[in-house]
Amino acid sequence: MSSSPDAQPRDALAAIQRQIQWNRLIAVVEEQAQIMIRTAFSTTVREAGDLSAGIFDLRGRMLAQAVTGTPGHVNSMMESVGHFLAKFPAETMKAGDHYITNDPWLGTGHLHDLTVVTPAFRNGQIVGLFANTAHVIDVGGLGMGPEGRSVFEEGLYIPIVKCFDQGKANETFFDILRAGTRTPAELEGDVYSLCACNDAGARRLVEMMDEFGMDSLDSLAESIFEASSRATLAEIAKLPRGEFSAQISSDGYEAPVTLRARMTVSEDHISVDYAGTSGLSGRGINVPAAYTRAYACFGIKCVVAPEVPNNWASLLPFRMEIPEGSILNAPRPYPVAVRHVVGQLLPDLMMGCLHQAVPDRVTAEGSSCLWNPPLRGGGQVSGANAELPDFEVITFNSGGTGARPTQDGLDGTAFPSGVRTMPVEATENVAPVIFWKKELRPGSGGAGRTRGGLGQVMEIGGKNDAEFAVNAIFDRVANPPKGRDGGGDGAPGWVGLTDGTLLRTKGFQVIPKGKRLLLKLPGGGGMGDPAGRDPALVARDEADGLV
After folding, report:
1. pTM of the predicted model, to two decimals?
2. CA 219 to chain centroid
3. What are the residue boundaries of the structural domains of the chain, listed by start?
4. What region does 464 belong to: left with phi over 0, alpha with psi -120 to 50, or beta?
5. Phi then psi for 174, rounded to 5 degrees?
6. Which GO terms describe its biological process (predicted)?
């Protein structure tokens, strides 16, 4: 039976309206994220953008995420909203409620990430959920470092609780929060920031629904999910079928860590089995399973379906089998404070598999994990003779990314986390430290037809060269990023003092008075035979002093 003459114009108009609604939804969640950045107290949020923001339906399925944000936060936050709903069902929520947790196994993998979920109401009816995650400076305990032997040593553990009840602050919660941190004003301020940005998202959503006369998000959600699923499956169908294996090494803590993956590409899904991966560590480099899934899915999606919006449906075809007892599937109460050191290697591992299927679509290995030294000083380091006031600060920095098939890698750029490098002025403004040097590291990119991105050189001292401490959480020192297709490896990282003294790559260490911390960040691996490099690019690199 043929459709009526008016059906096609109506369908076309509906499709246009759906696209407008989708664009508005992206604008809503991006405003949500930008408000968090503008109101945050922690430099990790307002300067580095270590956050995520998104909107969910009442079943806890992510419809859309903000452009601003990190995949480790976004993709694990996608799972966490379901845990909130299991404890506080949507029908019990009230306008003005805000719920919070930093449970590593219900959130984004370590205690330094706060996740807040907020219901949105229209005409007295709940219509959606907003969620966000932000990395805060301090939650007490040993601080952000690898040395805890259980999660209980790593800081203040917040179960899923209500921090605001119908707009009224839960003062008992805030009393406990302030008492459990070295930076009480900043931590409390960040919680208010997270709640405020969700409120702003809820207001904008209601405005959008009023404008379009929408009583619920159900129809729009199903349209988004159907389109995203169809597009993702179409991209998977283009891949060669088969099994592809790869492995990658991390410096680890007690011993090197090996990550192994066997990827199976089927007609309608991609599965990854991590059998053979190293076992659990006694220190905080372990990775909760949600964080493993977050970064592994991101690595696959970057290659297979980068243009498809990231949401519940587009991630559904990516399946993970993570053996119990693996460092990638840490159970409670294993320490997990610096799970990113291992977890952020996963996109490179996924690309190692996919390189065998679509070699022209992957990069060489990069520096991967952030070099974000937590710095501490004052009486908590030097006792009664401290020359500096007490401080706790963290600064985000990155080495080079791997070379791309047709372009060089990016210099000093965070991949896969996507956070911004923090300006030294921002850190110096909030802590008594001085960055004496921060520059690109010549020659650190692996040679190749396309060169790996350059790392950095950083020299950090206390004000007046006073004593301070670093909680080292560095990797890619003993295991530098590898090149692909004949490309050279990137330069390994280096951790020590300016006088040449070597420091451990992980763990709390004091920088003596008169000494300075020197960090040489790793470069990315190269791609292809160096003999095939464009002579003009070689001359440019030489002229710029990059080789």
Report:
1. 0.95
2. 31
3. 10-229, 363-547
4. left
5. -70, -30
6. glutathione metabolic process
